[in-house]
Amino acid sequence: MIVAGRSLYTRLVMRVGIVLTISSAVLLIAIWISTQLAANEAYDRILSGSALQIAENTWYQNGAVNVDVPLAAFSMLTAGDQVFYVVIDPDGRTVAGDPDFKPEIPWNKLEDGPLLQDGAYLDTPVRMAIIGRRMPVAGEHPWAVIVLAQTNNARMSFAKSVGTRALLVILAMGVLTLIAAMFTLYQALSPLKKIEAAIRERDLNDLSPLSITVPVETHALVSSINAFMQRLAVHRATMRRVIGDAAHQLRTPVTALISQMELLSAQHDEEGRRHHLDRLRTRTRHLGALVNQLINHAMVQHRSDTAALESIDLAQLVRQEMADMLSHQERLLDLAMEAPEQPCLIMGDAISLREAIKNVLGNALQYGAASFLHVQLERKETQIELRIVDDGPGIPEADWERIRKPFSPRSGERMGASLGLSIVEEVMRAHGGQLRFGYSGAGSFMVVLSFPAQPDEAA
Predict the structure, then answer these.
(1) Which CATH number is 11-160's, of 1.10.10, 1.20.120, 3.30.450, 3.90.320?
(2) Could you tell me if 404 and 420 are in contact, meaning their C-beta atoms sit under 8 angstroms apart?
(3) Which parts of the chain have pLDDT scores under 70?
(4) Residue 132 forms beta bridges with which residues?
(5) Which listed residue, 63, 186, 401, 421, has the most CB atoms within 10 A of its CB?
(6) What is the pTM of this model?
(7) Are 58 and 67 in contact (CB under 8 A)?
(8) Topology annotation, domain 308-458
């Protein structure tokens, strides 16, 4: 039973959507981080520049540090932020600015130039620029220190604004990309609909291969469908042939049987009735044999494509068939079987092989062997040969090819047509073997079945 699962198109769209979502999230995080870095760098440069302007207007005179804070130093800073500054002399006294703003001064790093670090003032996060200006005084710290701090509102607002715009752009591009991907996937899957339409529009009796141009990715699918239809066509042709053969071959004997029954019912003479009864019995026996052959022929044709091959000891199989068939024989025959001591292994279907061997042995017993029947099994390199030899009249060489075909007329004065050897031919073809006819060195007629040996047995 076929269960309809989730649409392939839906699966692909969902996977593309997931990939786009993850990619957008990663891109947004990268933009946010890079925006933060860019905003911090830009605002840090402005903050350092403003602190340097204050430092440039700081000097030492009359034993004291003096400072003239220019207004331009504050005008460069963002108006939306709070600004704090303090100027400390080498003794740690506040010269200018907010006397309560006393950040920790890294005295040993002032030589490195402007220092930028985060801090807090009045419970508010700030970014500070610390600059030391050397004063002409003696002491452990000959520095006048300028500390300029600014709250982070402007830089956070800038980063948020840029991040929001980037988010909108990414969302818009993601939606457009998803729509384009949906359309592309729909177009990419259209060959599947083309294949579906080609199969749906076909006549029920049309099992010819699909002849359409498909992408490389679906070529294997179409090839599998074509191979399946070819096998189905072969099976249907076989079925039609079997039905046609049965209808054709059964029509004549059934008609003859009905005629004999009508003649029997119209016959009042005892001798005539006995004659018609004998003919009726003969016709019935022939009809039964024909029906059995038709069934066996159909079975062999079916199993040639469906039966799984297994390792079989051909010698053991032949012994079993000979024992079954010869147990019903009343006449005295010179019987013999020659086979190697080790198993003669082949890959085959035991049921079909039994049918083939039974037909060959049956023909030899019924129409051939007058006084002897010998079976010889011999291994020849990669082949195993089964020879059935008898002292009967054999089959004329001119008929060797004709009798391989189904319903070939019987030779001599025998009535009807035969399927026996055509069944054998079918079995040998299915097993990669060969059916041959010939004569032994003593001039006796023989039927030869040649099988490919099992690989390890051939070695």
Answers:
(1) 3.30.450
(2) no
(3) 1-5, 238, 242, 245-246, 248-250, 407-418, 455-459
(4) 145
(5) 421
(6) 0.50
(7) yes
(8) Heat Shock Protein 90 (3.30.565)
